[in-house]
Amino acid sequence: MDAVVTGGCGFIGSYLVEFLLEKGFRVKIIDNLYRASSEAFHKFSRMCNVEVEVIDIRNSSRLLEALSGEVVFHLAALTDVEESEIDKSSYWSVNVNGTSNILDAASKRDIKVVHASSAAVYGELQIPAIEDITPNPLNYYGYTKLKAEKECLRYLDHVDVAILRLFNVYGERARAGVVKNFLESVSLRKPLIVYGDGENVRDFVYVGDVVEAFYKAYLEKSASGKIINIGSGRPVRIRELAEYIDEKTGVGISYREPRKNDVRYSVADISSAEKILSWKPRIDLFRWVSEKLGF
């Protein structure tokens, strides 16, 4: 079995590559290495059954040459919310045009696509999101991810494609996110930084559970043409997480001014993932954090 992983030297992508190798796949990584993990790149470059091609997904001709196999897991993207408001042209060219290039090449090579989207397409929520509510992204990053989804749906007559809307993914090797930032502060014996009043609510899902969802979306024929939330389904207030860590470590909490374009409530309804993919997250955030803190 042969698979392509775009962004395969990134956080989630590197976990997915390792997962696929354990399943017996030969994996081709397509990554421009702009924000990749150098550790992952060097590791994969030395491994059997892995090929790393340094390609930017905006280069349609190189993509067409490189794509092969049964499936492409498309994770390559720019993901920084604040940066997206400053550098809109790059976010559009990578997240939208790059996705179109992947879909076009996949249609010509008859390859299934499993596309990584984001909870950012929903914008502000009041209750856990179900996939058929009208998206309303609050920032340009979310807007580009929504446009990329629409590109996927536009290609449905030509490409077998499944779309996974990822919520807040955490885990070892994460390079961004509040969980990573909190644990890093603990290691430095510095206060945890909370923006605003800490009442923002998020849905945290472990990276190992996420890559299993990607694999199941590839296997499951009924996932074709579907948009599926991948989260824990559990609402967690940022203040709650900070207080939990502070109680165990005593590093303190520092409250800062709220950030612009920060969503107050973002939680997944994961009924579709349970029904279509027979998928449920197995790792609990608080238990994982406690283990990382040595408790």
Please render the helix and strand layout as text:
Elements: E1 2-6, H1 11-22, E2 26-31, H2 38-45, E3 50-54, H3 60-66, E4 71-74, H4 81-86, H5 88-109, E5 112-118, H6 140-154, E6 161-166, E7 168-170, H7 178-187, E8 192-195, E9 201-202, E10 204-206, H8 207-219, E11 227-230, E12 236-237, H9 238-249, E13 253-256, H10 271-276, H11 285-292
Helix pairs in contact: 1-8, 5-6, 7-9
Description:
The chain has 295 residues and is of the alpha/beta class. It has helices at 11-22, 38-45, 60-66, 81-86, 88-109, 140-154, 178-187, 207-219, 238-249, 271-276, 285-292, and strands spanning 2-6, 26-31, 50-54, 71-74, 112-118, 161-166, 168-170, 192-195, 201-202, 204-206, 227-230, 236-237, 253-256. Helix 1 (11-22) crosses helix 8 (207-219), helix 5 (88-109) runs parallel beside helix 6 (140-154) and helix 7 packs parallel to helix 9. The strands form four sheets. The chain has a seven-stranded parallel β-sheet, with helices on both faces. The protein has a two-stranded parallel sheet with strand order 7-10. Helix 1 (11-22) links the parallel strand 1 (2-6) and strand 2. It is built from eleven helices and 13 strands. The protein is 40% helix and 19% strand. The longest helix is centred in the middle third of the chain and has 22 residues, at 88-109. The chain folds into two domains: 2-167 and 206-230, NAD(P)-binding Rossmann-like Domain (Rossmann fold), CATH 3.40.50.720; 170-202 and 233-268 and 283-292, Alpha-Beta Complex (UDP-galactose 4-epimerase, domain 1), CATH 3.90.25.10.
